[in-house]
Amino acid sequence: MLRIIGIDPGSRQTGYGLIDSDGMHSLHLAHGVLRLNAKPLPPRLGEIFKGISALIREYQPEVMAIEEVFVAKNPSSALKLGQARGAAICAAEHCGLSVVEYTPTRIKQAVVGTGRADKAQIQHMVKMILGLRERPQADAADALAVALSHAHTHTTLIRQASQGKRGT
Fold it and tell me: What are the start-end ranges of the E strands in 26-168?
């Protein structure tokens, strides 16, 4: 089983989700949202770093999967999102985790089956795939979707590698 922490970065709220997966089955461990108060940006980035570092120490994941920055209409928002991602990635690096990145379209495709899925569809599919009683809050659902996307991709890569070895 591979333990994955998925991160949906944000400068106001950062979602996280932890799963164990063998590629065929995924087990939900935890999910939630780091809610960052209205402090200036640098202290919020510190809270992201500390919060994710604490989650990594508690759950001991083997890899962090994180959503890539998309180009937003508002450049200031995109820059803040990039800084939030940086704080999360630094936490992973500080704790010795490898980091993989996925585009929002790829995550939606892996979890819902279409790259144009909306938040409600992602929440529904995450609930169904992981057997949760309730739909997770949107940021936590996105983080779990990132983790599930990596579980699917990781399994596919292992399968392709083993098929390649058999063919030689």
Answer: 26-35, 63-67, 98-102
Q: Which of 19-28, 83-92, 150-159 has the lowest mean pLDDT?
A: 150-159
H helix or E strand, kind and range, residue 99 = strand 98-102
Domain containing 55: what range? 2-166
List, in sequence order, every residue forming a beta bridge with 67; answer none if it has no partner: 102
Q: pLDDT tens digits for 129-154?
A: 999 999 999 999 999 999 999 998 86
For the chain, how many structural domains are there in total? 1
Global pTM reads 0.91
Closest among 151, 153, 133 to 31, alpha carbons compared: 133
What is the token pair recorded at 66?
């994180």
**Catalytic residue annotation:** 8, 67, 139
